Amino acid sequence: MSRRLRPLTVDGVAGLDRPCAACTYWETPEPLDVKCGAACDGERLRSSISDVRREWGEYGRMALEDKIVLGFIKCAPARYFPQARRLPVGAPDASAPLITCLHVRDEARRRGLDRVLLQAVLRDLQMQGERLVYAYGSVSGNSVETPMPDLEFLLEQGFMVERPHLVYPLLRLDLRTLAAWTENLEAALESLLLPLGRAGRVPTPSVD
Q1: CA 177 remoteness from chain centre
Q2: Which helix H or strand E contains 64, and what residues bound it?
Q3: 4 bridge partner residues
């Protein structure tokens, strides 16, 4: 089996067996409950990904095992995620990169894949010349139903609280403080002990 890191695509997201397939929580301007799948609109998602890739860069990253999507992370300037303005602490600057979703398949959790996906996006941002990146952290610890990364995980990766909140604080990471990238992330992905290999259980997206 071959594992790869690739830019996030609509077809790739569709390969996940959870509301992520058409979830537009972050892309929706109307008020929503803070929950994965609170809004689903495949056309809006496709349009948003297309706009970001045309106007700024990739929409994030996904990790694949053969053609199975193991997990993905979304990242784009905050202006593309209007739901951020609905959160209690507000949104960062419209041009600032914002990490929103970070989801990993149930059977691939707690094995380091979330860290590999995050590092892939941080490396991309560094190469684009970005200096800061933001993310909301969830204190619930329920990363299956909450459309944002776990707070403790973000703190462990070097993020600092920018705007405190009891449930959904906004965090910031200064990319200039990170050491030079020397790790081969593709090799790190290959080395993870992930008990998968059950392609028949999931749809096979077109990701090429």
Answers
A1: 21
A2: strand 60-65
A3: 64
Tracing tokens 């604080």 back to the chain, one arrives at 169
- CATH number for the domain that contains residue 33: 3.40.630.30
| Residues spanned by the domain of 19 | 3-179
**Residues, the chain:** 208
C-alpha 131 chain-centroid distance: 18
* 31 occurs within a structural domain: yes
> What is the phi/psi pair of residue 164, to 5°?
-65, 150
Q: What are phi and psi of 25, to 5 degrees?
A: -55, -55
Question: What is this structure's pTM?
Answer: 0.85
Is residue 200 included in any domain, yes or no? no
Residue 33 identity: D
pLDDT tens column, 42-78: 899 989 999 999 999 999 999 888 888 888 999 999 9
Residues 6+ apart with CB under 8 A from 183: 119
What does DSSP assign to residue 85?
A: G
Name every residue whose Cβ is closer than 8 Å to that of residue 189 and which is 6 or more positions away in sequence: 3, 4, 5, 63, 113, 116
Task: Please tell me the total count of domains within the chain.
Answer: 1
Shortest CA distance to 149 belongs to which of 180, 121, 181?
121
Residue 157 maps to a domain: yes
Q: Token pair for residue 130? A: 């970005």
Each residue of 140-187: pLDDT tens digit?
867 678 899 999 999 998 999 999 999 999 999 999 877 655 467 666
